[in-house]
Amino acid sequence: MRAHKPMEHVKKVKVANRLGLHARAAAQIAKTAMDFDSDLYISLDGKEVDGKNLLSILSLGAGTGAEIVLRAVGEDSAELIEAVSKLFSLRFGEI
Amino acid sequence: MSDKSIKITGIPASEGIGIGKAHVIISPRVRVYYQYILEPMAVKKEIERFEKALKETENHFRSLKEKFEEFFENQAYLFETYLMILKDKAISDNTRKIIETEHVNAEWALKKSLENVRQLFCQIEDPYIKSRIEDVETVVERIIRHLPGELNSGTGNSFINPAKKRVIIVARELSPLDTTELDISKVMGFITELGGKTGHTAIVAQSLDIPAVVGLPGILNYVKDGDLLIVDGINGEVIINPDETELENYHEKQYEYERTKATITRKAHLPAITVDGRRVLVKANIEFLEEVVSAKSNGCEGIGLYRTEFLYLRSRSIPSEEELFDDYRQVVELMDPLPVTLRTLDIGGDKFASRPSLSQETNPALGLRAIRFCLKEQGIFKSQLRAILRASAYGNVRVMFPMISGLEELLAAKEILEGVKKELDDQGIKYAKDIKVGIMVEVPSAVTLADVLAPLVDFFSIGTNDLIQYALAIDRVNELVAEMYKPFHPAILRMLKSLMKVADTYGIEVSVCGEMAGDRLCIPLLIGAGIKELSMNPKSIPVTKEIIRSLNWEEEKATFVRLMAMRTAEEIKEELEKRYGLKVH
To answer: What number is the ipTM of this complex?
Structure first.
């Protein structure tokens, strides 16, 4: 059998909406991530949390302007990162 | 009644007077008792009880979500968020575990889970995100309400509805969830301990025309269910158990208020003419087509400002000329023969998802937006101008450029407009050849250069919100400085005066379309400065017209001269409050 390392993709994004990663924004991330098989991890200042869990994302306390690292592990990790970072660039549909 | 009457003053949040019985909502905090479960079998039952509550809460949220999905996307999203919190491991799994290992009742276990989450939130620095623990609290509280049994006597989901008669709702604070569950037809007033003028309760109450007073710390200690209450949403007063005389007085006040309101509404369609015969046009600011109905029913004399951004923001991509034309034509036809002033696109590049490279501006208010953006993205601009010109064949259209700061921008914009006209000519497409062209005066440099810009335009429209923000260098969304945002600042008054002088010289119409236009203290000031046209949100039109009818132009002119001599915003505001603050409309 061929040993293979799970695929991993990493991307840095910035929280651009005025209110930061509050419940609604975090819900959008978790909901989007759940559509994929890969796992998502989100980190800020060295603290990494489960990106499919709303309260964990909230616990990062990422305010506006925070630089966040998205890390996806699994087969569809590239697509996952793509989908989630799009949420960031659209500011979660807020100002 | 033996209870003595008590009068408490809070913040007036929605006008009107309500008299009725109190319906106290002890919410959002429910009382939770501790129970130790002795029998191992009972633990299993307790978990089942919890699962049932989870399921019911989920169904409840889902049905609310569906109810709002069609029209209130924002509300629907709120329930989506609640559903996710509901299913979060930190809530559901953790609570199950606590029931199992500690042999406690589900309520207590839920409370412990909530405490764990609260610990997590305590470490958050961002104040807004930190405050969102409220969302988690709302969800937990809702699960507790769905737990069947003696402790909560099955109040279920409709804890607000038990009221059979019309009541005054008294609560600590009302969340969006609370208000969506309310049977509004039974509510005569709102009283809340917390909240401010722009809080959720205030907004809901205003939109429903229900009197409200908020910001009454400790009110729940004074009011019990069934107490007779008076809510004075005009002065921000609440009277608990009023005596006979007070009741009589307020019944009269209520009657007076409602009669005045009815008169104002009845007279909404009549013109606004001052006591000494000066006519002032009152127009509407709208954001989308559907608002034309409300603008017309409130007696507007035209659309003074059609903010055209909505179509662009809704689709997140650039709408086609046909889409724009179709929308503009409908507004114009509906308003005809009254004029419609269309403001060209007033947003920045950051709003276009297709242009992410533009999204990194540190200071968007001073960045690439409005006319600056349009002059750079001429394709977008031309297509909008074509749509506007084509619509002008169907009624009375005026076009207005936002954020003009100097001559170059105005010349460039006009040149593009002329180019588009020529294109239409060549294609044989009809439009109003004499279409009036104006600018928003909202950048301070445009005030200084008014005499240079005036010969090139038909009208000025003062956007007071931005003008004040730019002139005083105050970001009013920034709560650290919001207090310094002062419409009565002497610098603003001087700008107004100098602009009016230029406009007079060149024979140009000037209107005001910022929030000042609908502010009862500002209206006399603007009339005194010589303004003959105001534009505001449709709902403010009837009252504004009535205020104008009570003014004497000659007197207001004299007052304005006096105000001009004052040196601080405080002085000016005090003087205006002395003159107009107490009049109740």
So the answer is: 0.71
